[in-house]
Write a structure and sequence with these properties.
The chain is α+β, with helices and mostly antiparallel strands. It is built from 15 helices and 17 strands. The structure holds adenosine-5'-diphosphate (ADP) and magnesium ion.
């Protein structure tokens, strides 16, 4: 029997706020353990919560940019459980009245031609609610240590419908979601720092069946690729269990990224196990139209909208836009370049290929060098494009000096001047060289004259070599053809 997979994701994102969600203790990463705490974070008796306005505002923003309906009242519930990551023994969360309802995440569909945009769809969201993060446990052979630094940080839980159908769609969903949230300044969404975390619910069913199969919840998916790999493995596991006549039990399984398989952790708890009830220490929050309008006005253009606009307005190819658009700073850099350079396609090409390559090469284990730290400016790119355009240098020379421009921050014209790289457009000089090359390469000449058009490239190559790449290629072509016609 053929099976198909159905996946729903629960993504947790830490909203980037200065202080925690219900207290003034600071948020932060990589601080000494248990230094970002106060009586409320530690759950000491008598400590009372005070709502962080910025956390609500960021949640409204996420809801608006994902097209959700924003609740007009949001209230707080206690989710009760006993575990060392939560000293109060309850987590303040939202149960039946989440701050955002519905909405969707735009993804690129797999299998369609990637040469054009338009093969996109929206993955439906169920809800987004706001809750406080819990502490972090680190397990050792004998002991477990707890760090409450992240406890109480505002955490958005973004729940999708079971509306994803392959590991690649899961991958596309997480990238799209992360890009949008980073664009809007909600969070850096760095999964390695735990700013974005994902649980994947995976089930399979016979193709053609409309009922959902029993789902398994996957945990410990620590990178976006890890989610894709874990989901891929789990789909295969479930299909083979069913093919062998077994049944899937509803449970939570842990992905082991090194050995690449999932293992059972526990059977799933039910909502009633948590004994949710409204938090008596917190008032519901009213969200009015004016507030929503104000937040709406702060939402920047979203990545895929920008990509569509770049293709339309600057006539950029899909390949350039898909390299540029996940990164807002890179897009701003590109648009600044277009203001001083009338060749958007050319500058996009330099930015999407050469600049990205140099940034990656200058990076470290944390990733590429951030654009803001590099010495490259839109003026460098614009000047390089115009030097090639006006024939001052060949594009080969431009390619060659790019790394030096990047490393030194010197203007391209200064490097060209310094190294004497200006392209030779001196017809007399080039004619002399061409005549000599023709005399030295009788075989290529004969082939060309015999109708083998490509043979001219060998001659051009020799001219380029003789001029150290500085001959104007267009001119060389013209001169060679003229001489060969005689
Ligand atoms: P629970 O009650 O176990 O928390 P929910 O119905 O709240 O389950 O769903 C949690 C997540 O699991 C959602 O993202 C949802 O889309 C997904 N999900 C629910 N049922 C399935 C299923 N049968 N297959 C895949 N994903 C599912
Ligand atoms: Mg649920």
């Amino acid at each position: 029997m053929e099976y198909e997979a159905v996946i729903g994701l629960e993504v947790h994102v830490q909203a980037d706020t200065k202080s925690k969600m219900f207290t003034r203790a600071a948020t932060g990463y990589a601080e000494p353990p248990n230094t970002l705490t106060d009586p409320f974070v530690l759950g000491l008796p008598g400590a009372l919560p005070v709502m962080n306005l910025e956390a609500i505002e960021k949640s409204i923003k996420v809801g608006l940019l994902l097209g959700c309906e924003i609740a007009r009242t949001c209230k707080w519930d206690r989710k009760n459980y006993f575990y060392p990551d939560m000293p109060k023994n309850y987590q303040i969360s939202q149960y039946d009245q989440p701050i955002c309802i519905g909405g969707g995440v735009e993804i690129e569909m797999e299998g369609e031609s990637r040469a054009v945009m338009g093969s996109h769809r929206k993955v439906e969201l169920t809800r987004i609610h706001l809750e406080e993060d819990v502490g972090k446990l680190t397990h050792y052979e004998q002991d477990s240590l707890v760090d409450y630094n992240r406890a109480g940080s505002p955490l958005l839980e973004i729940v999708s419908e079971p509306d994803l159908f392959s590991p690649d769609e899961v991958f596309a969903y997480l990238n799209s979601l992360r890009n949008s949230l980073v664009y809007a300044g909600i969070s850096d969404c760095d999964m390695e720092k735990g700013q974005m975390r994902c649980d994947a619910n995976v089930s399979v069913r016979p193709v053609g069946e409309s009922e959902l199969g029993t789902k398994v919840e996957l945990k410990n998916l620590n990178t976006i690729s890890g989610v894709r790999n874990g989901v891929e493995y789990e789909i295969k596991r479930q299909i083979s269990v069913l093919r062998e006549g077994g049944t899937i039990s509803q449970e939570t399984r842990r992905w082991n990224p090194d050995q690449r398989y999932t293992t059972s952790m526990r059977s799933k708890e039910m909502a009633h196990d948590y004994r949710y009830f409204p938090d008596p220490d917190l008032m519901p929050v009213k969200i009015d139209e004016e507030w929503i309008q104000r937040v709406q006005a702060e939402i920047p253009e979203m990545p895929f909208d920008k990509q569509r606009r770049f293709m339309e307005q600057y006539d950029l190819p899909y390949s350039s836009t898909s390299a540029l658009c996940p990164d807002k700073e890179l897009c701003d850099f590109f648009e600044a370049t277009t203001k001083i350079c009338e060749q958007p396609k050319k500058s996009a090409n330099w930015i999407a290929n050469d600049l990205l390559r140099e940034l990656a090469a200058a990076g470290d284990e944390n990733g590429p060098m951030p654009l803001a730290k590099s010495k490259m400016t839109p003026a460098h790119v614009a000047e390089l494009v115009s030097l090639v355009e006006d024939g001052s240098i060949s594009s080969n020379i431009a390619k060659e000096i790019f790394p030096e421009i990047f490393a030194s921050g010197k203007m391209p014209s200064a490097i060209v001047e310094e190294k004497g790289l200006k392209q030779t457009s001196d017809t007399g000089e080039l004619e002399g060289i061409c005549t000599q090359v023709i005399a030295e390469q009788p075989k290529a000449v004969e082939e060309f004259k015999g109708g083998k058009e490509n043979a001219i490239n060998a001659l051009k190559g020799q001219v380029m070599k003789a001029t150290r790449g500085q001959a104007n290629p267009k001119l060389v072509d013209e001169i060679l053809r003229k001489l060969l016609a005689n």
